[in-house]
Recover the amino acids of this structure.
């Protein structure tokens, strides 16, 4: 059994330190990332990207040590029987996950890409199955519908890193599941046009307020109506990084209270086929 100190002063000091430190780190993280992003908007694109990658890596390093110390202190003190320390432990775990996501985002912007033909239909199928399995474990359900045209020809593959493209698709589906309710619908559709393959994930979820739409691709940005839903605000930025590293682009449409559709456009592996017409 974990022993908990009964000294009121020591407990109060531990609770105050744990909660204040965790909340303070969370506030500073969001503030510093946004401040740095605004500063880099005035720099050249290439320099800004390199500096931002370095900043994320440095932030990961600076956050890791104090978080490790806080979690070690909480573990040594023991959190059983103390709701305040349990809150601090939960928030420390959440911030640890946030730091991990920031590290992942930094790595995605600089890691070498594999290059092979990727079947997006297979990628979507694998990601849908993974999200459905997760929802089943939670006892929740969404109605997934996937439409990839097969006539007059199939969607061509895209050239890229299969693991990163899966990560992007999985994030889109997980986001759609997160911001919808039990029994809601999620549609995945695809097509090709003028050498591009496009993939769109649409849902019947809470949607995004108009005022928040300009910030949806910003790191740590969260819509006003999503504050009560767990998340880091890094899912869509991650999708954007993956798409752009493959020479692609992203777009989003949303109506609050109706749903959201997120689209990725990627260069096709081969030119679109053209059926000969009879004279």
């Amino acid at each position: 059994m974990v022993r908990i100190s009964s000294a009121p002063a020591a407990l109060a000091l531990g609770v105050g330190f744990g909660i204040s430190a965790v909340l303070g780190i969370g506030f500073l993280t969001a503030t510093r990332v946004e401040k740095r992003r605004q500063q880099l908007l005035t720099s050249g694109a290439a320099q800004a990207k390199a500096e931002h990658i370095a900043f994320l890596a440095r932030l990961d390093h600076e956050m890791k040590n104090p978080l490790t110390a806080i979690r070690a202190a909480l573990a040594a003190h023991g959190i059983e029987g103390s709701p305040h320390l349990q809150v601090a432990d939960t928030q420390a775990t959440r911030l640890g996950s946030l730091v991990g996501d920031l590290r992942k985002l930094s790595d995605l912007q600089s890691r070498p890409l594999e290059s092979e033909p990727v079947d997006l239909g297979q990628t979507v199928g694998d990601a849908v199955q993974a999200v459905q399995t997760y929802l089943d474990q939670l006892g929740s359900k969404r109605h997934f519908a996937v439409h990839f045209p097969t006539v007059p020809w199939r969607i061509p593959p895209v050239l890229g890193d299969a693991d990163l493209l899966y990560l992007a698709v999985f994030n889109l589906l997980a986001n759609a599941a997160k911001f919808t309710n039990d029994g809601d619908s999620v549609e995945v559709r695809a097509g090709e046009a003028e050498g591009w393959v496009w993939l769109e994930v649409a849902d019947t979820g809470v949607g995004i307020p108009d005022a928040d739409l300009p910030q949806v691709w910003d790191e740590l940005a969260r819509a006003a109506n999503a504050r009560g839903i767990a998340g880091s605000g890094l899912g869509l930025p991650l999708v954007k990084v993956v798409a752009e590293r493959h020479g692609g682009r992203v777009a989003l449409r949303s109506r609050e209270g109706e749903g959201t559709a997120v689209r990725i456009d990627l260069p096709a592996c081969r030119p679109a086929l053209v059926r000969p017409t009879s004279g």
